[in-house]
Amino acid sequence: MSEAAFEEVSALSSIYCGEGEFRLLQRSAQDGLMVQINRTVEGVDVRLLFHLHLRYPSCPPAISVSSTVLSRTQCQDVRQKLLNQAAALPPEPMVHQLVECLQCVVTENFTGGEEEEGREREEEEEDWTAALSLDHIRSRNRYISLLERWSQQLQLSGRLLLGQSILVILQGARSNIKEFCRLLRTVKVDVDSSGKKCKERMMKVLAESPTSSFSGHEYGSQKIQGFLVRNYESLAELTAAFQEINMTGLYQQIRPSLSD
Q1: Domain final residue pick, 63, 82, 111
Q2: SS3 letters for 166-210?
């Protein structure tokens, strides 16, 4: 078991020091560490079980989720989102970051009304197109590698357009696009001006809509293929990039939001 894992568990016991918040359930030379962390988010109690294998943090932890409020299906949904998050993170101690992510997952998915949830569930299965803007990309190789990995994991196609404005065009299931955006906001994808790892707090969704709403004459039924990176140096080149994927209607919609 790595020293980093032991140090992390010690830190977790200090962070989650309230009554019943933290328990070290197992410490084994053969099976690794197992910790339990109990949290209450928006009135929803959640019990998280993290199994830190011997190779952790080189490999993500196994995660179990239970709750007296959430259904089994909802617990499985929380677990899957945390596993997605863990898979997207670099091989560093990550349990605290995953517990912090729980707040976002529960708030976004399980605190609305049943009617609203039902409507959103239908929308999430619909093919969707979204345009995002990023604030900066300093650690280019790391950042782009993560975006490419997430698009593949979430079965999304699109483009990363690098120029005066940094744009990400995504196409796929709305639920997967939402997950992509959540990862952007919660994973340390880049570095700030001082070289410290940072999250994409300044990401903006410029436009999103069912893909069918862009089905003008120039779009037809064609869909974006793959996830590719394109550099542009002028407005004409940016316009051409949208024409290449038959998304001039989307471009006209977001043009007022872009840097001049």
Answers
A1: 111
A2: EEEEEEEEHHHHHHHHHHHHHCEEEECCCCCEEECCCCEEEEEEE
Whether 131 and 252 map to the same domain: the answer is yes
Please check the confidence at residue 196 and state whether its pLDDT lies above 90: no
DSSP 8-state class, residue 53: -
Question: pLDDT by residue (tens digit) across 49-94?
Answer: 999 999 999 899 999 999 988 888 888 889 999 998 898 888 889 9
At residue 134, φ and ψ (nearest 5 deg) are -110, 150
Tell me what pLDDT residue 253 has: 87
Alpha-carbon distance 52 to 31, whole Å? Answer: 8
C-alpha 154/C-alpha 132 separation (Å) is: 16
Is 171:207 a contact under the CB 8 Å cutoff? no
* Contact by Cβ (8 Å): 184, 203: yes
Give whole-number Cα distances, 30 to 34, 132, 142, 170, 259, in Å: 12, 45, 33, 43, 56
Instruction: State the residue range of the domain holding 75.
Output: 3-111
The model's pLDDT over 20-37, given as tens digits with 9 standing for 90+, comes to 899 999 888 888 899 999
Are 82 and 63 contacting, i.e. CB atoms less than 8 angstroms apart?
yes
Q: Could you tell me if 134 and 186 lie in one domain?
A: yes
Is residue 53 in a domain? yes
d(CA 28, CA 32): 5
| Placement of tokens 């929380």 in the chain | 78
